[in-house]
Amino acid sequence: MPQASSPIGVFDSGVGGLSVLRALLATMPHERFVYLADSANAPYGERGDAYVAARTHAITQYLCEQHHIKALVVACNTATAAAIHEVRSSHPNLPLVGLEPAIKPALAVTKTGHVGVIGTRGTLTSAKFGKLMTALAGQAHFVVQPCDGLAHAIERSVAQPVPAPGSAVSSTDTGALCERYLHAMGAFGTAPGQMDTLVLGCTHYIFAAHELRALVGPGVQFIETGEPVARQAWRLLEAAGLLHVPEHTDHGKPPAQPGATPSVQLLTTGPVAMLEAAAQRWLDLPASCCQSVQVP
Ligand code: DGL
Questions:
Q1: Is residue 2 part of a domain?
Q2: Which of 62, 116, 174, 247 could bond to 198 as cystine, CB 3.0-4.6 Å?
C-alpha cells in the first residue's frame, strides 16, 4: 500500500518528460521521484496507439510493482492520448495525471486569435485531441502541425554542445526539422493574422526552445504544460492525503538543506549515458541518479 513517503512515478518515451519533472521538483521539492525514460523504444509519436498503449501498461505495472509509486505522472502527450483511459481503469486507486496540448491556456493569451500547435503525429491525430479541438472550435484559428522525427532528433541532440544564446538556428537535425515544420505552418508574429502563440504539444519540444525561438521571433509566446501538471499532481496528492510533509523545525519551517540533491531516481531502458547527459544538462542532477533498467 503506497504511503506519503512513497515516490511519485513519472514516465515518458524518453528524456522529454524531464521538462515535466523539472516543474514537479520545483513545486514539490520534498517528494521522492522515480522517472522512467523508455528510450529503447522512443520515439512513440509515429508508432501507433496499440504499441504505445502496451508500453504504457508495462511501465505502469513496473513502477507500481518495483517502486511502489503513490501516484503516476504520464509526462508524455502521446502516451496520454493513446492509453490514459486504460491506465485509469486498470489502476483505479492510483492518482494519475496525464498531459494534453495546452490549447485552453493558449486561448487565454493569444491576442491575434491565431494559435500554432505542434506535437507528435500520435497526439495530434488522436481521438482525444480531436475532441478537444471540436470543443474549442471557433474560439481561435488553429494551425496544427505534426512534427515527425523532431522528438527523436531532440533525444539525439542531448550529447551535443549547447548552442550559444542568440546564435543562429543550428544546422543540426533539430534545427532543420524545426525550420521545416514552422515554415509550413505560416507566419508567426504579433501582427493581425499572424500566430502569436505556439503550443508545445510534446514534452521534448521545450528542449528545442532555442531553435524554435530563433524561427518565430521574440514576441511569440510558447505554451507548455510542466507547471499546470505539477500543480494538478499536488492537488491530487493532497486530496488523497498522500503529500509528503517534511519534518518541521521549532519555528514551523522545513529545515533548510542548502545544496541538497533532490531525491530523484532516473531510469532508462536505453543508453544510460544519454540520460546522464540530459539530467546534468537540463536538471543539474549528477550521473549517480541514473541507472539503466529493463522493462519488457
Ligand atoms: N515526449 C512525448 C510527448 O509528449 C513523445 C515523443 C515521442 O516519443 O515521439 O508526446
A1: no
A2: 116
Q: Measured between alpha carbons, how far is 207 from 277 in angstroms, rounded to an integer? A: 13
What CATH number does residue 259 fall under? 3.40.50.1860
pLDDT band at 245 (very low <50, low <70, confident <90, very high): confident
How many alpha carbons fall within 13 Å on the CB side of residue 251? 4
Cβ atoms of 293 and 282 within 8 Å: the answer is: no
44 close to ligand 1 (CB < 6 Angstrom): yes
14 and 158: one domain? no
pLDDT tens-digit series, residues 54-69: 999 999 999 999 999 9
- 201 CB under 6 A from ligand 1? no
CB of residue 16 inside a 6 A radius of ligand 1: yes
Mean pLDDT of the chain: 92
CA–centroid distance, residue 80 to ligand 1 (Å): 10
Ligand 1 site, residue 42, Cβ cutoff 6 A:
yes
Residues carrying an active site annotation: 76, 202
CA of 150 to the centre of ligand 1 (A): 9
Q: How many domains does the chain have?
A: 2
244 C-alpha to ligand 1 centroid (Å): 29
Which cell is 142 given?
Answer: 488553429
Task: Please indicate, yes or no, whether residues 138 and 218 belong to a single structural domain of this protein.
Answer: yes
Residue 84 lies in a domain: yes
